[in-house]
Design goal:
There is one protein chain. By secondary structure, the chain is mainly α. Among the domains are: 81 residues, no CATH class; 66 residues. The longest helix is centred in the first third of the chain and has 70 residues. It starts with a helix and ends with a helix.
């Protein structure tokens, strides 16, 4: 076995055949021809599709520029709206807040409209916010305030129906509205329906502690 290994070690690996000058010249010529062919193909492709390629590049450039300008303008608008809001609040200017609400959008518009109502007590601002507010939070908040303002003229059943849009956990005022409805039924001496709403609050682990405590006190 050892002798076989020794003979194997002494055996030299065959050398790679050396290229002749003619073969080197052929390789060089092949590479040159291949490069020329590729260059011709590239040139032909560019000539054929130059206009679509340029048009596509321009479209991409315009889109990128437009997006950047839109972002800049949106940021500038938000900053301007925030500054206008702070100025109106500082001056206690309900009219400026109402104008800001009309000329902006989103939560800034809703907040300005609600603050305008808080300064003036103008119920029509709450009506507009409840009907057309941009955010659910402020729409529901406006409806909750309207229920408190109009509740005396409603029966308990009408009051419950009025606050029906808030009878979902998607509303941030779900538990507040539930407690208000329970109190309305109690004021109408309808303990049965009142307890339905109170039990709903008490049995719900998600109910805020303050509202839960209020419901237990009424139960």
């Amino acid at each position: 076995m050892a002798s076989i290994l020794e003979r194997y070690k002494k055996t030299k690996a065959p050398k790679a055949p050396q290229k002749t000058m003619e073969q080197y010249a052929e390789d060089a010529l092949y590479r040159e021809v291949w490069e020329d062919v590729n260059n011709e193909k590239t040139t032909a492709f560019l000539k054929k599709y130059a206009r679509p390629l340029i048009a596509g590049a321009l479209v991409i450039l315009i889109l990128i520029t437009g997006i950047q300008l839109w972002r800049h303008q949106a940021r500038s608008s938000r900053l301007a709206a925030a500054q206008a809001y702070e100025t109106a609040i500082g001056n206690m200017d309900a009219g400026a807040l109402a104008n800001l609400a009309k000329n902006t959008s989103g939560a800034t518009s809703d907040l300005a409209m609600f603050q305008s109502f808080m300064m003036t007590g103008d119920q029509s601002k709450l009506e507009a916010l409840a009907a057309n507010g941009s955010t659910r939070d402020f729409r529901d908040l406006a409806l909750l305030h309207l229920a408190a303002l109009k509740g005396d003229g409603m029966s308990a059943a009408e009051f419950e129906k009025y606050l029906a849009p808030l009878n979902t956990k998607n509303s941030p005022f779900y538990f507040s509205a539930s407690l208000m409805i329970a109190r309305k039924y109690l004021a109408a001496n309808d303990r049965g329906n009142a307890n339905i709403w109170l039990d709903k609050i008490i049995s719900d682990k998600d109910a805020p502690n303050v509202i839960n405590a209020g419901a237990q006190a009424l139960r």
